[in-house]
Amino acid sequence: MDKKPRRILLVDDDVELVTLLVDYLTLEGFEAEGANDGPDGLHRLALGDFDLVVLDVMMPGMNGIDVLREIRSTNSVPVLMLTAKGDPIERIIGLELGADDYVAKPCPPRELVARINAILRRASRWGTPGMPLSAGPLTISSTSRTVTANDRPIDLTTTEFSLLELLARQIGKPVPKEDIYPRVLGRTMGPYDRAIDVHVSSVRHKLAAVVGKAVTIDSIRGIGYQLVVHPDVPA
Widest CA span of the chain, in angstroms? Predict the structure, then answer.
């Protein structure tokens, strides 16, 4: 049986760029669809079952940050942000709002496809067999890609789940950032790259809201991060 093509939604006000990328992604085996403003992108996303959204930050009217905020209020679909080259602020804001990763414009189509495939590979681990991981009150299921604590769900994005799962598999051990980037984002760590730091911050807040300080992600100066369970702290 032929594998169903992955569906990609491109949201960018540059009509020529969207047309080019839709054609390129189609040649690469995806089923791609374009929208040229935020409201149209949200409308198409609501009507269609997309596997990933490529979202430009700089759009007139409703910008990409506002669109991402709307998406994350109802939908956990992976989102790859297109950001201005050399502007770290909008990248950090996008990651804090739940974007899975970003790529700077102008971006060669081949690099965009590589980033898309990296995110989809993480998301496609849904259904991978394996026993759930336990980390104190946390239960981390690789099969359903869900995290619960005392029967309460913790809602994580695709990237946040991959990060927590990686740290949980090496619980109590420092995991270098250089190892986290390729295994969680599917790319090497760039200069002044804070993507993982922002994802860690988001996961910390989400864990704290449910389990308090019973499970923490500790920073290991000059190395990376480690997941720590504090058994004497009530969840």
Answer: 58
